[in-house]
Amino acid sequence: MIREISVELEVNGMADITSEVKKFVKESGVEEGAVLVFNVGSTGAVTTIEYEPGLKKDFPRIMDRVAPYGENYEHHKTWGDDNGSSHVKASIVGPSIVVPFRNGELILGTWQQIVVVNFDTRPRRRRVILQILKSA
Q1: Three-state DSSP state, 123
Q2: Which residues of the chain have pLDDT under 50?
Q3: Which of 64, 117, 121 lies closest to 93, judged by CA?
Q4: What are the residues facing 7 on neighbouring strands?
Q5: Number of C-alpha atoms within 13 angstroms, CB side, residue 23?
Q6: Max Cα-Cα span within the chain
Q7: Residue 4 and residue 116 in contact, taking contact as beta carbons nearer than 8 Å
Q8: Could you give the CA distance from residue 116 to residue 38 in angstroms, rounded to a whole number?
Q9: How much is the pLDDT for 80?
């Protein structure tokens, strides 16, 4: 079973998609397995975080230390654009996660939410693919 969701995000924006993933798992009728959560595109990412105001500010600030916007990236020469840092950040965080579930419920920590992140230098509509992986 596969579903695509779409999320509008600003630059350095992130959105909590945990409820959509939970709903998808419930609607699948599968009791035990895992759900793949995959961002389509090379300047966005999927991860887990405690989705609270402080971390929503801290995460992009720290990621900008890792791969600052405005630096000279070789990528810019290849395509004539300005989002080399976006690609580096997205590569570090990664495009997907796999979350196990049991009895139709995601197995997440108390403060752990699933988020999609836009690292691009412009607002983007992020496409996220959800796919059920059944237990054998």
Answers
A1: coil
A2: none
A3: 117
A4: 126
A5: 7
A6: 50
A7: no
A8: 9
A9: 86
Task: Name the pTM for this structure.
Answer: 0.95
Q: How far is CA 95 from CA 23, 28, 80, 81, 115, in A?
A: 21, 23, 24, 21, 11
Domain count, the chain: 1
Taking the C-alpha atoms of residue 113 and residue 45, their distance in angstroms, rounded to an integer, is 14
Domain span at residue 45 reads 2-134
The residue among 18, 17, 45 whose CA lies nearest residue 124 is 45
Tracing tokens 């798992």 back to the chain, one arrives at 25
Q: From CA 40, how far away is CA 127, in angstroms rounded? A: 5
* 77-80: Cβ within 8 A, 24+ apart: none
Q: Which residues pair with 3 in a beta bridge?
A: 130
Tokens 């997907």 locate to: 96
CATH assignment of the domain containing 11: 2.60.120.460
